[in-house]
Design a protein that fits this description.
The protein is built from 11 helices and 17 strands. The protein starts with a strand and ends with a strand. The mean pLDDT is about 95. Strands 3, 5, 6, 8, 9, 16 and 17 form a 7-stranded mixed sheet that branches. Strand 10, helix 5 and strand 11 form a beta-alpha-beta unit. By secondary structure, the protein is an alpha/beta fold.
Amino acid sequence: MRIQAAVFDKQDGPFQLQDIELDEPGAGEVLVRIAATGICHTDGLARHGDLPFPAPGVLGHEGAGAVIAVGPGVTSVREGDHVVIGWPWCGECRNCRAGEPRYCARLGELLVSGVRPGTEAAALRRPDGGALHGHFFGQSSFATHSLTRANSLVKVPHDVPLDLLGPLACGLSTGAGAVLNTLRPQTGSSLVIYGTGSVGLAAVMAARNSGATTIVAIDRHTSRLELAAELGATHTVNAADTDPVAAVHDICGGPADNALECTGIISVVRQAADSVGMLGTCALIGGAPAGAEFTLDHLTTLWGKRIVGVLGGGGRSTQLIGALIDLYSQGRFPMERLVSWFAFDQIEQALEASYAGDVIKPIVRMPA
């Protein structure tokens, strides 16, 4: 079928709206009409080449929309269902069978190979037959339609704004899930969040729904720190004029119990790790460029300090996204305060506005 997509033709090349061809769904696949898709810095990393994804192709991995066709064997969703497109997973490897689909053994292939799973070609092509890479994070949602695997989909209620939900596929669930699924702050504990973009602010909102009683937000943007305080941070630190590690130790009366690093900046990774002490946990979720390395003090790390990486918030998409939608409906996860809206033909401006810090979470609405 003929669809429209934002195609980048070469590394660092601009997104250009083009008419392209998309295959009909095969066995286990679902065709989704995209209502809106969030824009994440990971899309920028892929276009730049720091996250390897072949050009020319179609990015986008925070899509939400309505099912318009299902392939043979699909019974979990049907035409008309509203869905968020979660991360892909094989369902067969040891980690998937153990209930950890975010850490699927085939994850690299499923996220960034650019081809249809189990094949050597994408389901996308130019009208003249020229090859395009797709299936980015199993969806390539910078398009009016997405072909995805049925097991990636999370059905959502029809009474929740569908064009708000795409960022639950990655950015917001990454921050919130790292708190709720991985760190799981104990009652009366402290949590430090480095970086208050959409991921960090989602973590702040999740922490407010946890047992943590000291929630410290750290950033260099005053406006974002003010929003963090409104969303649940008990303390804020502006790293532009304050040593954040010293400030954390002062606020917590010593090292914090937990830290969450959301920026992917290597110097900040070290600060986050130094913010926790004996038996403390530092979770890393920020996207650093490929090949980036960091160092830690060996002796203090030996004292029971845990450094853990978290992909996509951990857990299962259905459970995590479903819970966050429930919290949103109850007024306990006000994600609408993070978003700014853009038209599909403004996708380039949306990404630039995110990089510049002018918006927190850009969402691109598709044409009706």
